[in-house]
Design brief:
With 310 residues, the protein is α/β, with parallel strands linked by helices. It has helices at 3-28, 41-48, 71-74, 121-133, 144-151, 156-159, 167-171, 238-243, 249-255, 259-275, 287-295; strands spanning 58-70, 82-93, 98-103, 116-119, 136-138, 196-200, 203-207, 216-221, 227-232, 279-283, 300-301.
């Protein structure tokens, strides 16, 4: 065999071996948790009772769009099978006010466009209108599919009194790409807090950095006593928590995620689910979880449309 052919085969063999060695850590492996994350549920419950007034009587949602990923992108080691990734916005309804949790994003700002398989323009317009009527607006984190409705709102200046964006969310310009902080938010005083803060009667923000620096969970105690914990993208699916299994490494590198911080949160949330089965956990993009919670009466589809409060 000629020398150059042997050399070519040797190079090809080396590349194949390198690819096989890289495949496991990049795609299939989820490491063991090495950190701890403390979520003091009793403190959250006490804060939920700390502000006077009625608690939320209803939780509503709009399913604004649907992306399509592969299961292997959601849970390390799962098959390369297409799976839907719906995007939601939530409305907490009180007798005298509404709050918005997450704001989806406009159709034209989703990048790459090819992963979007459905977009409900009417739902997004309802979210935009509901933000104008809301007394407070929070996002679970600064990725475009959660903060985008705020950053591209056609009447953003009118939303400023209701916005509760944290310093960590506003400072993560890479995380909100392809969007940017618009000029209307220059000089906006961010909403800063420690580990937890009561936002409104029955509503508590809980810091949970890891997926992004500004990641937070939202604990809600309804007027009827039911409890809901919005996880944002701490977990995309319930399965991540049940199996304490992260997104694959190549996805966490793309996102800029702290894997160990997220794995620690998975452990805490798994243990919390076992200890508090009545607490409804809401992952960021889990249609089956939303359907279960809807059937159980924790929430219902369709925002209330109310007059603008500002």
């Amino acid at each position: 065999m000629r020398k150059w052919i042997r050399r070519l085969l040797s190079v090809c063999g080396t590349l194949v071996v390198a690819a096989l060695l890289a495949w496991y850590p990049l795609v299939r492996h989820s490491p063991q948790p090495e950190q701890q994350y403390v979520l003091d549920l009793e403190k959250a419950r006490a804060l939920a009772e700390s502000l006077p007034g009625s608690k939320p009587t209803d939780i509503r949602y709009e399913r604004v769009m649907q992306m399509e990923f592969f299961e292997a992108m959601v849970l390390a080691g799962d098959p390369w099978k297409p799976t839907p990734m719906p995007v939601y916005s939530y409305q907490l309804s009180y007798p005298d006010q509404t709050l918005i949790v997450d704001t989806a994003l406009a159709r034209e700002t989703m990048q790459p466009q090819g992963i979007v398989t459905a977009f409900d323009d009417a739902a997004f317009q309802r979210v935009n209108a509901a933000m104008l009527a809301a007394s407070q607006i929070v996002v679970t984190h600064e990725h475009a599919d959660h903060i985008g409705g705020v950053l591209t709102h056609p009447e953003l200046a009118k939303l400023k009194p209701a916005l509760r964006l944290t310093p960590q969310q506003l400072d993560n310009r890479r995380g909100m790409a392809p969007l940017e902080v618009p000029a209307e938010l220059q000089g906006y005083p961010p909403f800063d807090y420690g580990d937890m803060v009561a936002l409104a009667p029955g509503v508590v923000l809980i810091r949970a950095p890891g997926h992004t620096p500004g990641s937070q969970m939202v604990f809600v105690k309804r007027a009827d006593g039911r409890e809901v914990l919005f996880l944002g993208d701490v977990s995309w699916r319930t399965a991540n928590i049940e199996q304490v299994r992260e997104r694959p490494l190549f996805m966490t590198l793309l996102i800029g995620e702290d894997r160990q911080a997220v794995l620690a949160q998975f452990v805490t949330l798994r243990d919390l689910a076992r200890r508090e089965p009545g607490l409804a956990q809401v992952p960021g993009h889990d249609a089956a979880a939303i359907e279960r919670l809807t059937a159980a009466g924790f929430m219902q589809p369709g925002f209330l449309q109310l007059p603008t409060v500002r």
